[in-house]
Fold this protein.
Amino acid sequence: MNEIVEMIFQWHQGAGFKQIRRSLGFDRNTVRKYIRLAQMTGVARGAPFPPEEELALRLQTVGDAYFSRTTPARALIAPHRDWIAEVIP
């Protein structure tokens, strides 16, 4: 989580996606994803940066909703979940 907070902090301080990617070694799309999540929690350039613990909690709350959306594949697999559990130990 520290690297994600550092990524968001660098963006908050004015760094661009390429600069953050180079300094932390993340993929450009990963940087973009976490910056969007941070923006969804209210983090904005020019506004005070939230404490690390508060930011982590906000990201977890928004991230859970963001990443837990149902996909068509999951809906198709759901009726077969028990069989899959038996076949794959």
